[in-house]
């Protein structure tokens, strides 16, 4: 798979090696961790992926959620096992990308609900209470306000309403009260409940575009250097055409950006202009 990605889409897809390596190592670690647990232990249901932050596009979170004590105990046991294998390393849990399967008993039937970890934490509160106000849920989970509102909205206001709320409405307010919807029905035994994603702010959009532009500049630089190393010298038009061809499966660059990247590489002394033809570039070994 990695070979195909490199050949057809991105010759620089080296990061994929690290990502797939993380996944393989995580599976091996999880298998060993489970093998050390007693048969029938609930902790055998825990699934953990240990991913190096430098290789994955996940931002660190300033605030997360308070998990139930039995979940915290399962995570603590895994941390203890992990540190016995890798001393000096630190695990930072990111619950925002976690998932869970809950067995939920409704009046009509028992269903397996596949939900986000945030949704699971909220739903589990209703094992202990018939009704909960928004502020009570906030206090119990200590979730980010925006995240909590989106989570409750997905459970009580979307198509699959496993919670009911008063007053009825599409939005979640601080005065709302929530109830477990025992009358929920679905033809499937396994029900997936979608999360509601946060809308990207203008600042986040600008930051994302900045990262994309930066990555593309490095990608263009690498492509131009590879071409010139192979060809030794080319005219500007030849180099421009071959650069576009080299990166077309990745993105379509603007000609003005290619021109700037060539000028930057001349300044960094990867290339130089021909003394007799300023429109011809020569590779500097």
Automatic annotation (TrEMBL):
One of the protein's GO biological processes: ubiquitin-dependent protein catabolic process
Keyword Cell cycle attributed: no
Superkingdom of source: Eukaryota
SMART domains given in the database record: CULLIN, Cullin_Nedd8
One Pfam family matching this protein: Cullin_Nedd8
InterPro entries xref list: Cullin, Cullin-like_AB, Cullin_homology, Cullin_homology_sf, Cullin_neddylation_domain, WH-like_DNA-bd_sf, WH_DNA-bd_sf
Domain Cullin family profile as annotated: residue spans: 19-156
Keywords noted in UniProt: Isopeptide bond, Ubl conjugation
Keyword Ubl conjugation: yes
Gene3D superfamilies: Cullin, Chain C, Domain 2 (3.30.230.130), Winged helix-like DNA-binding domain superfamily/Winged helix DNA-binding domain (1.10.10.10)
Molecular-function GO term, any one: ubiquitin protein ligase binding
Entry's family note: Belongs to the cullin family.
UniProt cross-references to PANTHER family, sorted A to Z: CULLIN
Protein name: Cullin family profile domain-containing protein
